[in-house]
Amino acid sequence: MIRTEKRLRLCAVLIACNLVFIWGNSLLPGEVSGAFSDWVKGILETLIPGEGTSGDGGGLLRKAAHFTEFACLGMLLTWRFGMLGKKGPWPFLLGMAAACLDETIQIFVPDRGPGVLDVCIDCCGVAAGMTLVLLGHTYRKGKRNDNQEHGGNLI
Asked: What count of Cα atoms within 13 Å lies in the side-chain half-sphere of residue 3?
């Protein structure tokens, strides 16, 4: 029981940190956000040699970042609701609400604006994160059942 309470608290803190990261980036003016994206893009081009990115590689990087940060949110929300024993669409709906709020924040930030495509990418990220957690849970549950059927001990 105590372990579950600690996990719930840890998960709540991680969700809060994830949202602060997401919304904090949305509060950055366009010029600062663009400079940061260019900096990350430069690091990636150094780490992954090749011909570099052609065209608007920074735009692709931003979309990948949207997807990834919301996939993390989807994983955390699914983990939290799983610990609470609640089933249903709540993790996805909360992730979608976070995505809509993220884009709404950008209305008020200089050189930024909301994007319907970004909300769609964010929601796909949430769904991907949820799917990863559910697949992992199913796999782990299957391994546990296989171990018990074959007389193995679980650690």
From this structure: 0
Instruction: Confirm whether 153 is domain-assigned.
Output: no
* Domain carrying residue 89: 2-146
Total domains present in the chain: 1
40 within domain boundaries: yes
pLDDT at 155 > cutoff 50: no
Q: Is 117 exposed, middle or buried (0-12, 13-18, 19+ CB in 10 A)?
A: exposed
Examine residue 152 and state whether it is found in any structural domain, yes or no: no
**pLDDT above 50: residue 15:** yes
**Does residue 22 contact residue 98 with C-beta atoms inside 8 Å?**
yes
Most confident of 1-5, 39-43, 58-62: 39-43
- Cα dihedral across residues 11, 118, 67, 126: positive or negative: positive
Answer whether residue 82 is part of any domain.
yes
Tokens matching residue 2: 């105590």
Per residue in 74-117, pLDDT tens?
Answer: 999 999 999 888 888 999 999 999 999 999 999 999 888 899 99
